[in-house]
């Protein structure tokens, strides 16, 4: 009986040690999963904001900032367009432009660039005009690739539409062409079909060909010899 009691006591102590060992192993594994820093893991999350959709001329740029909170590195950002929950990945970029102290504070980093400035390609504007921008930060800490602030607020702008018009006279000679770059341009010909004069840079002239006298202020005249040489 005494021997049995001793045996039971030994088993009991071994069981307690085994339980403590399992708890320690489990805790160690958890700390390893959290990169030995539970505090850092609790901070890690995608944060950021789309600040503006800036326009310069006919070009648009999406600007803002994004980071993996507490991670001392710039992150990739993926720009999606569409309706939240049904989006298309349109642009891949990196939030690696210089950022101000307020952004560093929000990201809990020091000296790391977190801003982005992403041109919106014309192809994206043609394919997705009117849809909304959603920017996802790509986590470097194993977290979710969350959308940042103001996702779904800004709309993909329409593409630039440029119209060019070409007009021909009764002899099927080009007598006028209207272009966005140069305005309204007029041409005239001599009896041999040589270009006799041209005038460029007009606006507001009624449609159709015009006489040489109508554009005398900007007209450039040409003359040819008997062999039709300029």
Write the layout of secondary structure elements.
Elements (H helix, E strand, L loop, with lengths): L1 H32 L4 H6 L2 E11 L2 E10 L6 E9 L2 E10 L5 H7 L7 E5 L2 H7 L3 E6 L27 E4 L5 E6 L3 E7 L5 E8 L16 E3 L9
Antiparallel strand pairs: 1-2, 2-5, 3-4, 3-6, 7-8, 8-9, 9-10, 10-11
| Count of helical stretches | 4
Overall average pLDDT: 83
Structural class: alpha+beta
Strand order of the largest sheet: 7-8-9-10-11
Largest sheet: 5 strands, antiparallel
**Strand elements, count:** 11
Radius of gyration: 36 Å
Helix content: 10-25%
Which consecutive residue ranges, at least 5 long each, have pLDDT under 50?
1-43
State the shape.
elongated
Distance between the termini: 130 Å
What's the order of the H and E elements?
Answer: HHEEEEHEHEEEEEE
β-strand amount: 25-35%
Detailed description of the structure:
This protein is α+β, with helices and mostly antiparallel strands and 230 residues long. The chain has four helices and eleven strands; from the N terminus they run ααββββαβαββββββ. The protein has helices spanning 2-33, 38-43, 101-107, 122-128, and strands at residues 46-56, 59-68, 75-83, 86-95, 115-119, 132-137, 165-168, 174-179, 183-189, 195-202, 219-221. The protein is elongated.
Q: What keyword list fits this structure?
A:
230 residues, alpha+beta
How is this structure best summarized?
With about 230 residues, the chain is of the alpha+beta class. It contains four helices and eleven strands, in the order H-H-E-E-E-E-H-E-H-E-E-E-E-E-E. The longest helix has about 30 residues, at about 1-35.
